[in-house]
Amino acid sequence: MDKVSHGNETEIGHSIKVLLVDDHEMVRIGLAAVLDTEDGIEVVGEASNGYDGIRLAQAYSPDVVLMDLVMDGMDGVETTRKILELYPDCKVIVLTSYLDDSKLYPVIEAGAFSYLLKTSRASEIADAIRAAARGQSVLESQVAAKMMNRFRQPQQSAAKLHEQLTEREMEVLKLVATGKSNQEIADELFIGIKTVKFHVTNIFSKLNVDDRTQAAIYAHKHGLAE
């Protein structure tokens, strides 16, 4: 639903057009009510799912999208990816309750500009919207800490980690990076699923990662994925 903006125009020449995408109605109502009082910010639409989020993005060409991650149908990661394919200059700010790696890294890879938790104060969310309009990214402090810890090891050391992998482990890693399940990898390589699990465990250990998402990010980052 459309909102009327209040206050002055911003540095981008007009009020910052914001689209809310969240499957919790009360969250959307609360955000819209708060942002509607902020100078230079206009909530142009509210979507309860990814499909409607894409449709409203096409209708209103928002400057900023506040994006939930866990929604029925199309999740926030895929919705982010599709909106940015349509509007590369749009800034997607993740606003979520989740901080685990399985959601954090994929949405950043998809192009999310900022990452905030729903425990953030209303003023912090408004400031993040204004910062995004200026081209400045904002990360929740816990998110920044996780990312720093993830990539803290020296680049030279990190670049050598995959050299420890056997030829078979490298094959498995490349398939993990394409999103294949253990069963699909077993079928493609004509090996047992227990063997695949053994190789995946070794890969995690040698690359110093915790899950398949991190392994896939490592593979893409170092040009190992096909």
From TrEMBL:
<keyword id="KW-0238">DNA-binding</keyword>
<keyword id="KW-0804">Transcription</keyword>
<dbReference type="Pfam" id="PF00196">
    <property type="entry name" value="GerE"/>
</dbReference>
<keyword id="KW-0805">Transcription regulation</keyword>
<dbReference type="InterPro" id="IPR000792">
    <property type="entry name" value="Tscrpt_reg_LuxR_C"/>
</dbReference>
<dbReference type="GO" id="GO:0000160">
    <property type="term" value="P:phosphorelay signal transduction system"/>
</dbReference>
<feature type="domain" description="HTH luxR-type">
    <location>
        <begin position="158"/>
        <end position="223"/>
    </location>
</feature>
<dbReference type="InterPro" id="IPR039420">
    <property type="entry name" value="WalR-like"/>
</dbReference>
<protein>
    <submittedName>
        <fullName>LuxR family two component transcriptional regulator</fullName>
    </submittedName>
</protein>
<dbReference type="GO" id="GO:0006355">
    <property type="term" value="P:regulation of DNA-templated transcription"/>
</dbReference>
<feature type="modified residue" description="4-aspartylphosphate">
    <location>
        <position position="68"/>
    </location>
</feature>
<dbReference type="GO" id="GO:0003677">
    <property type="term" value="F:DNA binding"/>
</dbReference>
<dbReference type="InterPro" id="IPR016032">
    <property type="entry name" value="Sig_transdc_resp-reg_C-effctor"/>
</dbReference>
<feature type="domain" description="Response regulatory">
    <location>
        <begin position="17"/>
        <end position="133"/>
    </location>
</feature>
<dbReference type="InterPro" id="IPR001789">
    <property type="entry name" value="Sig_transdc_resp-reg_receiver"/>
</dbReference>
<dbReference type="InterPro" id="IPR011006">
    <property type="entry name" value="CheY-like_superfamily"/>
</dbReference>
<keyword id="KW-0597">Phosphoprotein</keyword>
<dbReference type="InterPro" id="IPR058245">
    <property type="entry name" value="NreC/VraR/RcsB-like_REC"/>
</dbReference>
<dbReference type="Pfam" id="PF00072">
    <property type="entry name" value="Response_reg"/>
</dbReference>
